[in-house]
Amino acid sequence: MDSTRFPSGDGQPGAGGTGGAGAEVPLVREQAYEIIEAVLAGTDPEGAEVRERLREHVAAHPGNPEAALHEHLIFTRSLARQANNRPNPNKQDAHRHPAAEQISVPGRGQAAIEAILHGGMLVTAFQPIHELGRGGVIGAEALTRFLWEDGDGAGSWFKNAAAVGLGADLEFSALQAAVAAAQDLPHHLVVALNLSPAVCLDPRLPGFLEHAALEPSRIMLELTEPLQSDELEPLLDVLTPLRSSGMGLAVDEAGTEAASMRHIRSLRPDVIKIGRGLVAGIDADPSRQYLVADLVEFGRQTGAALAAVGIETAAELAVLTRLAVAAGQGHFLGMPTIDVKEWATWAGPATALQNRRGRRMAGQPPQTDGH
C-alpha cells in the first residue's frame, strides 16, 4: 500500500499509526483516516477513479482527513447526481458511470451494508443543541454520516439494513462511532444518541452503555421511532435501570395522537422533541403556536422539557423562545459538523437546563399531574 498518500509534514500519522503523536490525534480524525484507508485499499478496476480522486483530496488537505472526506463526499455526490440524471431510454442497458455505480444510492444490497459494518465506513457529525432562554450550547446530537451517502441521507442505509436483518448491527456500529467521537466534545455537553425501540430492546444495549467511555449523566437516549403497544412494558424494564444510573431519555418527533401522549406519560422522558413539521413557519401560524404551547404545558405536567428540531429562521427561534420551549437545534443555530475545532467552540459553563436535568437524574421526582 502506498504510504505516501497520507502527507505527514504536520506530524499527523496515517491510519493505524501507533507513534506518540497518534495518541493525540482526535478520535474523529482517526475515524476519517480509517475510512480513507479502507477505500484506498480497494482493488476493483471500476473504483479506480474514486480512489484516485480521494488521493487528490487527501493530498490537498495534509493532516486534515475530515476536510478531505468532506470534499470527497461533495465530489461523489456530484458524480451520482450526474449519472442518475442522464437520459435513460433503456433502463436495463443504461450506462452508469463506474464511480457512481460504486458510491451512489445507499442501501442497494446486503453486501454494501456488510462492507460498512466490516470496514467502519461511517463517521459521526454532531449538531449543537442550544438552551433557548439563556443561550449557550448544552448538548450535541450524534448524527451518522456515510462515506457514500447520497441525497436520500443516512435514513436509507438504516432502512435497508433493517430490511436485510442488519438494522441493529448498523445502529450499534453508529453508536460505537458516536461514543468514540464524543470524547472530543466539550465535557459539559450532554450527548444525544439516537436509538430505535428495537435496539433499546436488544440484549446487547445495557452492556454496551455500561462500558461506553461516557459518564452516564452525559448520555441522553433518544427514541427515534413511535412505539408499538407491545413494546412499552419491555422498554420500561430496560430503561429504568439505565435511567437510574444517570442517563436521560428523549422522545423524538413527538406526535399529538392519544397513543403517543399515553406512551410519553408512561415513559416520563426528560425531553420531548418537536419536529420540523411543527416548527416550520410557526411565527406565521397561530394554530401551531397554540399546539406547541399545549405541548409545553404537557411537558411541564410530566416533568419533561420541550426541545425543537429544525429551527431555520430567527422568527421561528423568537416564537419558540417566547413559548418557553427550553432547547432547540437547527441550521439557524448550528449545522451538523465533523469538525473537532468547531466542536471546541461549544465549550461553556453548565446552564440552567443542564442543572435541572441533573437534579432529576439525581433522583428528585419530576412535577406530575397526578396520573
Automatic annotation (TrEMBL):
GO terms for molecular function: cyclic-guanylate-specific phosphodiesterase activity. SUPFAM superfamilies: EAL domain-like (SSF141868). InterPro entries: Cyclic-di-GMP_PDE-like (IPR050706), EAL_dom (IPR001633), EAL_sf (IPR035919). Residues 11-22 have a biased composition (Gly residues). Residues 102-350 form the EAL domain. It comes from the Bacteria. Pfam families: EAL (PF00563). Transmembrane segments: none annotated. Residues 1-22 are annotated as: Disordered. This is EAL domain-containing protein. It comes from Arthrobacter globiformis (strain ATCC 8010 / DSM 20124 / JCM 1332 / NBRC 12137 / NCIMB 8907 / NRRL B-2979 / 168).
